[in-house]
Amino acid sequence: MTHYLDQLNDVQKQAVLQKDGPMIIIAGAGSGKTRVLTYRIAHLMKNDVDPFNILSLTFTNKAAREMKSRIASVVGQSEAKNLWMGTFHSVFARILRSESEKIGFPSNFTIYDTQDSVRLLTAIIKELQLEKDKYKAKQVLGRISQYKNSLITVRAYYNSPELLEADKLSGRPQMGKIYKEYVDRCFKAGAMDFDDLLLRTNELLTRFPVVLAKYQDRFRYIMVDEYQDTNHSQYLIVRALADRYQNICVVGDDSQSIYSFRGANIQNILNFQKDYDDVKIFKLEQNYRSSKVIVEAANSVIEKNKTKLDKEIWTANAEGERVIVMRTYSEGDEGRFVADSIFENKMQNQLTNDVFTVLYRTNAQSRAIEDALRKKDIKYRIYGGLSFYQRKEIKDTLAYLRLLVNPNDEEALKRVINYPARGIGQTTIDKLTVAANHYKKSIFDILLNLELVDLKINSGTKIKLENFANMIRSFQIEMESKNAFEITDAVLKKTRLIKDIELEGTPEAISRVENVQELLNGIKDFIEVQKEKEEEASLSYFLEDVALATDFDNEKDDIPRVSLMTIHLSKGLEFPYVFIVGLEENLFPSAMSMNTRSEIEEERRLFYVAITRAEKQVFLSYAQSRYRWGKLIDCEPSRFLEEIDEKYLKYITPKKSIVQSNKFIDQNIFDDIPQHKIRFKKPVQRVIQKSKARKNDSIKNEPPKNLKKLTTTITGKDKTNLFDNNLTVGNIVEHAKFGRGEVIHLEGNGNNKKAEIKFESGNTKKLLLQFAKLNIIA
DNA sequence: TTTTCAAGAATTTTT
DNA sequence: TTCTTGAAAA
């Protein structure tokens, strides 16, 4: 086997060999950054640095796992095991577990995910009787997140005239009150949100010099990956920990900073040299990933940004295919283009699905792509969006487990106190909350002391509450003798949660039951893996893992699939063929990020990231019209398309079109869109060449047939539209719930069309055809 | 208290 | 178009 140092180029080698002192590695896209990081760590270990003394912070758990296994292959499994490696959130959550009591949190503190936070804020806003239109929980959370990431505590907030003024101006003068209540409630519940994991770590390190010294001494060598996307809170943690030994190595690429919306501060990387003395700089500029065309096309884009560090990315790789640009009529067409291209490429080049990825700006765009892939029977996997652990049935199950571990967890309690339904309604919960706030206790404490507080609830409800509390307590006792898997199983049986889902009897219910089973399997796996690693397999640790898990962490070996994800999620990944869809103004760049130069620059970096994921070829596409909230809107091509040097592009026109619309599509509606003429009339110049070159004879200058279109739409969409047209008075229909009946009257139009039906049971009902799933019997 | 239906909002990006 | 929310009915 060749020595690992021989697998590196000069700069890479220097970076690996640089052992001590502050250093920064500016790593262009595809420049072998991970390789340098892993070998650097391996090299440290080979040179007498104890793995216990190395801290490596990555952007995702997946990156940490991969790096760890690559290091293990150089230095051996048992050595690599002791490395501290993970995301900021997971590493410091782990540290907080052992230190949290110093700052008033129990060691079994809960981690609130975004949904928990939003729910809590919604409750608080309601309790404070604020207008919920002014105070939208999500926005309020975003604001609080900003404070926390900038280390602005409630007190600091009230001491800052600027912040008070800013919130007043934006119509939210009560932000301080909400912020305070939110922090207090989290504290009382023994819960930390994502931002708290960093904020409280900072608190711990600042307030307790002994603790700081302990971890400074422990982490003698610190590495931070994706440094361009660290926020202020993370920045301070790193500074504090590195202060003693100054062995800090940060890696990143300012051109790939794409997380400013969640507080990432690009200045952290731009100013690194000012923060430490005698910083060594390494620039990895050779790209090993992508073809020349891709590297240079990407360069031509990022050049347009003013704020950036000086570097020149180049590659020795082959020229490669040009970037394909595809104009389509609609999102449906765009999807078909993607599916067709994947299909063609697979056939021509004997490829499997997993070499393709489709990237988009917003999650909502995935649907059209999914539909098209499904029609072509191409298997795919979506990353992000609603992840496994965010599904209702999973969150419900987990909420029980959370409550067992930490009965003060308010959000978990509110989630399950009446699920499955046990007759404890909103009014009762409100009363409990008021009492809990009044006595400064958790709701569970109130439940345990019902006779001491006068809640003005009737005795029936009181018994229900007592039963619930007793059930939770008995689980807690059981938990002492059972492992995580057994206790979960017991909870599911006792609460009849699965039975409750099955009761719905729908096909979706079946898959939801399967999800819960899957969760059980997951717990079993977790126990086994932890045993292998000789680590604790407690329920508490499992819940922590789950709270910080991302979609990538739940990946199963399966058949090869096309990957679908947002560009943000694709950071750090690479794929041979990359489709970037929806290159339209207001979508990409997003309408929300077109106000300032820096916002546009971030969007451009996002585009840069997207292009540079590709090894072999990039496909860009945009639609001329797109559905938004059920309405068809016209779209303009993205400015980014013009920013790519044209010599790297190849324009393709659609072969044929199926315009998916409920509306009667008249050719004329395209007339005010000049590009459209390419399609039916004369193509503009650069398109002529391409269509000639491709012998694209499938363009027959033939307007789409309206009749056909309509049929396609109807059969392709839900069938109720069909009934809408066909149903007449006198029809005998069957309804899933109510059984058979006769249509005795029709009213309304389109989506509002209703049928009055006399059922065999004798009941007469008015049903909206849009929703009612009726089968026509006669 | 629970269920049902109609009206209204909703789309950046995520640990 | 689809999801969430709120009021009214059961």
Give an account of the 3D structure:
The structure is a single chain. This protein is of the alpha/beta class. It has 34 helices and 24 strands. The protein has a seven-stranded parallel beta sheet with strand order 13-14-12-15-16-11-19. It has a six-stranded parallel beta sheet with strand order 3-2-6-7-1-8, sandwiched between helices. The radius of gyration is 29 Å and the shape is globular. The model is unreliable at 657-725 (pLDDT under 50). The chain binds a DNA duplex (15 and 10 nucleotides) through residues 59-61, 87-90, 113-114, 194-195, 197-198, 258-259, 261-262, 361-365, 384, 418, 421, 423-428, 548, 550, 566-569, 587-588, 590-593, 606, 627-631, 768, 771.
Give a brief description:
With 778 residues, the protein is of the alpha/beta class. The protein contains 34 helices and 24 strands.
Arithmetic mean of pLDDT: 84
List the uncertain runs.
Answer: 657-725
Structural classification? alpha/beta
Spatial strand sequence of the major β-sheet:
13-14-12-15-16-11-19
Helix count, per DSSP? Answer: 34
Strand content: 5-15%
Radius of gyration: 29 Å
* N→C terminal distance: 76 Å
Q: Portion of residues in helices?
A: 40-55%
C-alpha geometry? globular
Please report the total strand number as a whole number: 24
Main beta sheet: 7 strands, parallel
